[in-house]
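Quick one: structure tokens for this chain, please?
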Amino acid sequence: MDNPLRNELLALLPPRDLQSMTAKLHVVEFAQGKVIQNEHEEVRDTYFPLSGMLSLLVVLSDGRMAETSVVGREGLIGARAGLGSQMSLVRVVAQLPVRALRISMKDFREVLASSAVLAELCLKNADVLLDQARITAACNSLHLVEERFCRWLLHTADRAESDQFDLKQELLSQMLGVRRTTITDTAKTLQKKGTITYSRGKMQILNRLALQRHSCECYELLKRTSS
């Protein structure tokens, strides 16, 4: 099995608590765009990402959606269900290819019952996601698309641990809640500035410092909430 310490939350557990989970963890992989959890469905598993990025989306009745928060190897998916809330309020999508450790909700709750440290970490993780949702809501309301686009690219690069990654326009338009044509126009503008290159779904950040200058302050705010 992959080293569970790749997940920063699992790395904070006392050795005894982590050992009690090890036999119940299973490695899973998800392709980019894979829906891992649907909204209004029972949460059956908890995931501890080892690489990649998961997006949490609010989906409206007309099919429109917007990203509220993201999770990489600094956190987990399914903490609220482990603490008592069985239904998911959001859709969880692999925004980047994801490798994770999965544990069934039944086993996760058993471990939680015997690990005060894990329970505390789950509460903190829930607070992080709530803070992310608040900041993202303000960002979507107050900042320009280009600023939000840059902020999102920076967070994605952080979790990809690379300045090169695959990025589908359709997924990004869903994340930012804008039309695909807006994504195309924004990417062209940034390419003209020499900040990125983007062709056939391949994104490369050429000038990270310039991208940070074009981003809004929410990049740093969101980064601090996850650290």
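The radius of gyration is 18 Å.
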